[in-house]
Amino acid sequence: MPAFPNLDRVTRGGVHYIGGVPVAQSVFGKDPFEPVTHSRVEDILHEQTDTLCAYIPGGGSAEGKAGVLVYEAQTNRDMAQIADQLAARSETGLLAGCAGFASVLPRLLQLSCRDTAPLPLCGRLLAVCGSINPVSLEQCAQAEAQGAPRFSLTPEQKLSRDWAAGAQAGEMLGAVLRACSQEPVVVLDTGGAVENAGADKTADRIQIANTLGALLKRLLDDGLESTVLIMGGDCLLGLMRQLDVTEIMPLCEVAPGVVLSQFTYGGRQWNLVSKSGGFGAKTLFYDLQNILERWKKELTAV
After folding, report:
1. What residues does the Four-carbon acid sugar kinase N-terminal domain cover (predicted)?
2. Taking the model in full, what pTM does it have?
3. Is the pLDDT at 257 greater than 70, yes or no?
């Protein structure tokens, strides 16, 4: 069940739509690394497996169907109803979906839920963007237009194996720390795609993630207090590798598709907000900062 209605990502007639646009025609079809080349979910699956797929339309029955069952869902109510059907048939052994489907797992698997413990929060936000998704790039540009200091790496800096550990990077990070102590939102990004960076795009992608991870490690080691928003799974993995952290605990959703987590590094707990490159409104950075500031005040008042 690939739908995520809260982000206007729905499956209708076997086709997955992003904001009303078939996924292969959306920004995800233009991804330079992993473009989505089909909009029908069954076609996407058949790029990876020869297993038989069967589409289950809204309100339809899966009785007599075999293989990978692809469910249509356009609303949260649709997903809840599908969860009830799966539970009634005891078909809970192998499930697949995104955060939209995850929202109905407690209902489906009869899991108990509890509120997460209050966390010390910093209301200031450092947005770290390694994604080249147009949605993320627009968010960086919008934050800058709203007054956020923006620090963008050059192609040479982000592709260098050594730059992040050097003196020039240290000077830039000093400026980032000063900005973070004074401004509600600060942006550190990789400046979008690299033109003619090299034949091995995968190697470039890994190096950029490692560079950002190394820069973030230096910021944490130097006393960064701002809450970090990291955009793009590659960059989150790059940071975890640089910190030698193997566990991260998701705590709650700050906004649809945007998750607050916690990890341990250097003998203390750190808050981290993360999201996929294609998630969120144009004004996301300041929207999140306002939410964090409100939460901080509410926790302080407790």
Report:
1. 1-104
2. 0.85
3. yes
